[in-house]
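Q: How do we represent a protein-ligand complex in a form that can be generated token by token?
A: Start from the inputs.
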Amino acid sequence: MSAGTGTFSIDGKTIDLAVREGTIGPSVVDIAPLYKNAGMFTYDPGFTSTASCESKITYIDGDEGVLLYRGYPIEQLAEHGDFLETCYLLLYGELPTASQKADFDYRVTRHTMVHEQMTRFFQGFRRDAHPMAILVASVGALSAFYHDSTDISDPQQRMIASMRMIAKVPTLAAMAYKYSIGQPFMYPKNNLDYTSNFLHMCFGVPCEEYVPNPVLARAMDRIFILHADHEQNASTSTVRLAGSSGANPFACIAAGVACLWGPAHGGANEAALKMLEEIGTPDRIPEFIARAKDKNDPFRLMGFGHRVYKNYDPRAKIMQRTTHEVLNELGIKDDPLLDVAMELERIALHDEYFIEKKLYPNIDFYSGITLKAMGFPTSMFTVLFALARTVGWIAQWKEMIEDPSQKIGRPRQLYTGAPQRDYTPIAQRS
Ligand code: SDX
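Then emit the structure tokens for the protein with s-citryldethia Coenzyme A bound:
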């Protein structure tokens, strides 16, 4: 929607720039004509004030700690729905009716097996390969097996590719885990729901029947809901940029997995748990708080801070409750890591540095404690994040492909390198 015009004046020139407003949230200034009319670029490394696209999928209010998927608050979706309902909502834009949900669950369930030759693909990795290295490779490798769903101009192929990734990434994630511990791969079981099936593929063995714990399955499913999408974060922006070149959907999602791996992004859950283990006991917290505040020390409190949330990450609150739920179900009365985490949060939230910089726990702060208690090694934490975020990446990729204004993403730069100069023959170089 148009919201009038802004003007930009420089060197005696004044340029009108259209202002557009969204349904909720900040309006935008359309700077596309700037280079043509003023011969200048805008400059915003890290995109702190830049909207890269128009989207209808997820809305975040960082000051109020609000997260909406297609307008529905994350708290309500996590409380009342399941992950596949959230997948349907993110993909189609509306909550499914009972028959739509049953059909969607059926379609996903029957795409969970991967091509049998994928099992040989895994054999090339060392057993100690990081599961994220395996996931990046195996998601990209899906494009070698499913040529009938790589034509991005065909809506039906786009949807088939989307369903395949939602269905198969859990299978690949479980295979990466099984491979790392030297256990046989477990085939999906169609009589289990999505998340119970994932737990079965991770923790089941051929020698005995695996009965998923319903409390743990519900907690895992809720964790997937919390991680499903998050506006234009680094990995989603990576998927959009890769998709803007026309790359096939499997390659685009593999690019998102690669970006998510970084410790500043999805790798923070693994880094946060390692940090809590390094702190070890509450009496060592002040030492780490001091390091986090020391400009000369690159150390940061992992699981704290966020580009958008300058209030408590709403997902972290639900995550914290889920942590207590899982520990209670497992009879873990006194988890030293949880003690350190809760004391660290209490101290940090009363410390002037964190208050002034508006640094709060984010979703990665408590997730690691929960996942460790459920039996996952830290190396699997970001894999679980990627599993859940696959639907968000796909929904955003589809929206970008279907956007009539879409064109290849190609940012410019502020060049501060050498001016043009002539080649010097090597004999004349000193
Ligand atoms: C995710 O974008 C998303 O939506 C991501 C995500 C999603 O769902 O997709 O929400 C998932 O990635 C959550 C974030 C996980 N990362 C971490 O927990 C790593 C630790 N956090 C930081 O690295 C940092 O907070 C970021 C990367 C999350 C945000 O960085 P910004 O927005 O670029 O902020 P910044 O680095 O400019 O920091 C602002 C100030 C700096 O101090 P000054 O230079 O202004 O003096 O705050 C300080 C920073 O030094 N700061 C921290 C800190 N985070 C920021 N100081 C100590 N500990 C921290 N964790």
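DSSP finds 18 helices and six strands in the chain. The longest strand covers residues 2-10.
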